[in-house]
From TrEMBL:
The lineage of its organism: Bacteria, Bacillati, Actinomycetota, Actinomycetes, Kitasatosporales. This is Gfo/Idh/MocA-like oxidoreductase N-terminal domain-containing protein. Pfam families: GFO_IDH_MocA. InterPro entries: Gfo/Idh/MocA-like_OxRdtase_N, Gfo/Idh/MocA_Oxidoreductases, NAD(P)-bd_dom_sf. Residues 1-118 form the Gfo/Idh/MocA-like oxidoreductase N-terminal domain. Residues 157-179 have a biased composition (Low complexity). It comes from the Bacteria. It comes from Streptomyces avermitilis. Residues 146-179 are annotated as: Disordered. Gene3D superfamilies: Dihydrodipicolinate Reductase, domain 2 (3.30.360.10), NAD(P)-binding Rossmann-like Domain (3.40.50.720). GO terms for molecular function: nucleotide binding.
Amino acid sequence: MRIGLIGAGRIGTFHATTLSRHRDVGSLIITDVAPARAHELADRLGETAAPGVDEIFTWGVDAVIITAATAAHAELIGRAARSGLPVFCEKPIAVDLPGTLSALSEVDAAGTILQMGFQRRFDVGYTNAREAVRSGRLGRLHTVRAMTADQSPPRPTTSRSPAASTATAWSTTSTSCAG
């Protein structure tokens, strides 16, 4: 399988590294708004850098990974859909509801697949917090504050241990606010 990756920043580097190790991925075509960054990543992984987004859609890829800036997501999703390509896109789909609805409409019209990256839902810290709330052992909650700190730089891993995940802290209060 040939994958086009748009965005060679921190999360793009994580996905590119993971995909370059996957047995079903024959090659990656990597592009970024900063061409030098795409070339550096592609060279390090033994993959191919594309000069721009146009090449992702004309060089015969089988799927697209979007890890570009949020403001570009909806347009890139639409372009991939119009090209008949399945897409994995990091959240969010767009910066606003009209952009989101437009992108989803293009995916529906093209009959392609869109998968969103939404990793926090499965983060160990969040799943532990959810279980603590559901079990009732924390009492009735009025406020939950959560903070996460990703590893920097991210490191692909096959481990699902808490140490391999992100650091997550959460706190609750059972007092209500008056005012």
